[in-house]
Amino acid sequence: MRSGTWEVGSTRHFPCSPMSTKHVKLAITMYLHNLSCIRKYLDKKTTECLVHAFITSLLDYCNSLLYGLPDWLISKLQRVQNAAARLVYKTPRFCHTSPILQELHWLPIRDRIKFKVILIIFRQPQEPHQTIFRNLSLLKAIQVTVLDPMIHSYLLNRDKGH
User: Fold this and answer.
1) Residue pair 109/74 in contact by the 8 Å Cβ criterion
2) Residue 2: what are its φ and ψ, rounded to 5°?
3) CA–CA gap between residue 59 and residue 52 (Å, rounded)
4) Residue 118 is assigned to a structural domain of this protein
5) Which residues span the domain enclosing 153?
6) What's the domain count of the chain?
7) pLDDT of residue 115
8) Each residue of 102-118: pLDDT tens digit?
9) Is residue 75 part of a domain?
10) How many CB atoms are located within 10 Å of the residue 29 CB?
11) Which residues pair with 6 in a beta bridge?
12) Which of 23-37, 68-82, 108-122 has the lowest mean pLDDT?
């Protein structure tokens, strides 16, 4: 059964597989190449807008599903984000990107994924019978071990309000 470009029922095209990370990286690399060809005609603000439209949107789409992937896969997406930041600022390829990411107010990929998971939990309904994230076994099942202290304190503070 097919749904859009994803094959449902098969792990071959599951969004957090290494294969899909490869496809996302290839698509973004194509956009980066095309933008770099016209970069000399664009100012910084326009380039940043185009990077958000074509590249950041692909990096952020369903990125919460990437939680728990090995570092070697996340680092591939991080390299793409670094290349996009270098494109905006016209810096050389081997220039350090942390200051550029900070100036653009972009979180690194691993932190973007964590932020998305926290945002999903924050947006959950506050009624006890509707909140699915109160079940600690479910939290462990989605591998939120790094976020447990923040999630636990958030849930405790939210429960005190009711």
Assistant:
1) yes
2) -120, 145
3) 10
4) no
5) 124-160
6) 2
7) 85
8) 999 999 999 899 888 88
9) yes
10) 14
11) 3
12) 108-122
| Domain endpoint, select from 64, 80, 107 | 107
Query: Do 48 and 81 have their domain in common?
Result: yes
Q: Give pLDDT tens digits for 58-75.
A: 888 888 888 888 899 899
Per-residue tokens: 74: 């996340």
Structure tokens that stand for 25 in this block:
């990286």
Average of pLDDT values for 39-57? Answer: 94
* Domain assignment of residue 28, yes or no: yes
Q: Mark whether 77 and 139 lie in a shared domain.
A: no
Q: Is 66 exposed, middle or buried (0-12, 13-18, 19+ CB in 10 A)?
A: buried
Domain for residue 146, yes or no?
yes
Residue 136 CA, distance from chain mean position: 24
CA within 13 Å, CB half, 131: 16
Indicate yes or no: pTM above 0.85: no
Confidence band, pLDDT 50/70/90 cuts, at residue 7: very low
Residues comprising the chain, all counted: 162
Q: Which residue in the block uniquely carries the two structure tokens 């107010």?
A: 105
146 C-beta neighbours (distance < 10 Å), count: 13
How many Cβ atoms are within 10 Å of 19's Cβ, its own excluded?
12
Question: Helix, strand or coil for residue 90?
Answer: coil
Structure tokens at 43: 């100012």
Phi, psi of 125 (to 5 degrees): -60, 150
Region for 92 from its dihedrals, namely left if φ exceeds 0, alpha if ψ lies in -120 to 50, beta otherwise: beta
